[in-house]
Structures are given as C-alpha cells and as structure tokens.
Amino acid sequence: MLTIRNLHVSVDDTPILKGINLQINKGEIHAIMGPNGSGKSTLSNVIAGKEDYQITEGSIEFEGTNILELAPEERAHLGIFLSFQYPVEIPGVSVTNFIKTAINENRKARGLEPMPAKEMLKLMRERMELLSMDKSFLSRSLNEGFSGGEKKRNEIFQMAMLQPKLAILDETDSGLDIDALRIVANGVNKLRTSENAFLVITHYQRLLDYIVPDYVHVLYKGRIVKTGTKELALELEEKGYDWIKEEAAV
C-alpha cells in the first residue's frame, strides 16, 4: 500500500530525515517509536503532504502512485488520513458540518453523489457508539473547549467516519488517561480490516498493549535503525533508548 524509498527531508536546510525506507501492506499495523527529535512527526506530516518540508531525495508511493507532488486534500481523497498530535480548534464549525463536508469532498473526488443525510446520521450514530461518545459532540464547534481526551477521541471519530485506507496516528496517546486510551484503541481495533493499514507513532509502549503492531520501527536521528515485533517495544520500555543509540553509533 505504502512504499517509502530513501526519503531525505529537510526543514530550513536542516536535514531531518536521512534515508527512510518503509513498506506497509494492507492489513498491517506498523508502530514507529524513537526519542524526541528523531523525526517521527516529520515523517507523518510529509506522508500527509504538509508544507514547509523540503524533500531532497527519495519517493513515497501510495498504491503505486507517487504522491509527493499531490496536495494534502488529493492525498486524503486517495485514502490517507492523519490524526494530529495537537488537534486545532475551529470555532463556528460544528463537528457535524466538518465531517459532512470532508466525507462529501472525498465522495466528489471519486465521482460519487453526496451521502444522503439519513445515511450520514445513521453512520455517525454507529461510530459514536463505537467510541463511547456523547451525541452532544456533533453540535459542538470542532475541538473548541474539548479536553485533551475529547480531542483525541474526536480525531478517531473522524477516522471512523472517513474510513481511510491508511490511517496515521501521530502520538494519539499523548495526554490520554487509561480509560480514554482504551476507548481510542478499541475504536482502532474495531476499524481494522484486511483492506486498510495503520501507522502508529508513539513514545510509549502502553498504547501497544491495546493496539498490537505487526512491526515496530525505531527512528533515531532521521533513520530507521531497528525493526522488530511488539517485543522490541517492550524492550524499549524496559531499557530506554541508550542501547539503541549505542548500536546506531557502531
């Protein structure tokens, strides 16, 4: 589904990513861990198409299409979703209208008619139940006055409604208490199919107790320096990153 080859990325002429190679297939969950400043959020932003990054070398292909020249909304129409680490507040735009607009723009890009209101409302209710969300969310302005947990749950609700092929979760667990973490993880697990894939970026192994990855990659100084299974995440939790840094220096 996603193939990244020798990706080099800079910000203001400062190299951040220094040769990322990564392949994600349908049905897989990949976790990326690493110390602060290693390039994790940069990688997620570059896949999603955020500006301000200079791609100096390499390629990103999504289902065989080179997406580096595509705008963020074009990538979204292909089925790429990014859950933000710090979701922004948009006063005056209700959650309902935001979701409705996003879904219908995606449908328009695929040559489909807008989703009928009755079908949209039914889907919203199903997805909110999945995430144990109160119906009052729908009439609130997007993220305005939301707690940290509510913002993250709302991000997963958007993902549940949009049903992307590739969902990138950028530190969705940050700021969540254990109950909110379980609800978010449960939503992700129920949305997982053999046709979609997830890229989960996290600092902490605890999220991976609930969302079990097929692969764990350690990013350090702009490179993937180690890949393993969930056991690698447990090892990082126990030992920290010093041993990874020592191995990378050899």
From TrEMBL:
Asked whether the keyword ATP-binding is assigned, the reply is yes
| A Pfam entry, by short name | ABC_tran
Give the CDD domains listed for this entry.
ABC_FeS_Assembly
Q: Which SMART domains match?
A: AAA
The protein's GO terms of the molecular function aspect are: ATP binding; ATP hydrolysis activity
Family membership, please give it: Belongs to the ABC transporter superfamily. Ycf16 family.
Q: What is this protein called?
A: ABC transporter ATP-binding protein
Organism for this UniProt entry: Thermaurantimonas aggregans
